[in-house]
Amino acid sequence: MKKTKRVLALIGVVLLVLLYLSTLFFALSGNENAMDYFKVSVYATIIVPVLIWAYTFIYKLMNGEDKNDNPSDDEEKE
C-alpha cells in the first residue's frame, strides 16, 4: 500500500507540474484561443488538487483509517 501511495503521489506531482507549465504556455502564447485554454488550465490547476484531497479524505472515511498511518506508533502503544 505504501508503494502505491508513493506512485500515486508522484503521478499527482507530475500532473500538477504539467498543468503549471501549460498555464504558463497558454498565458504567453499568442493563439486566438489562448485565453480560453488559459482559463481551463487555471481551473484544472485549482480543481485537480482539491479532487485529489477529497478522494483521499473520502477513502479514509470509508475505510476507517487513522490520520496516522505510521505502524511504529501502534507498536509504541502496546
Question: Would you write up a description of this structure?
Answer:
With 78 residues, the protein is mostly helical. The protein has one domain. Helices cover 82% and strands 0% of the residues. It is elongated. The mean pLDDT is 78.
What keywords describe this structure?
mainly alpha; 78 residues
Helix content: over 70%
Q: What structural class should be given to the helix and strand makeup?
A: mainly alpha
Q: Report the β-strand fraction as a percent range.
A: under 5%
Distance between the termini: 23 Å
SSE topology string: HHH
Regions with pLDDT < 50 over 5+ consecutive residues?
none
Compute the number of structural domains: 1
Overall pLDDT metric: 78
The major sheet is characterized as: none
Number of strands: 0
Rg, Å, rounded: 18 Å
- The best one-word shape is elongated
SS field, number of helical segments? 3
Please render the helix and strand layout as text.
Layout: H1 2-28, H2 34-63, H3 71-77
Helix pairs in contact: 1-2
Summarize this entry quickly.
This protein is mostly helical and 78 residues long.
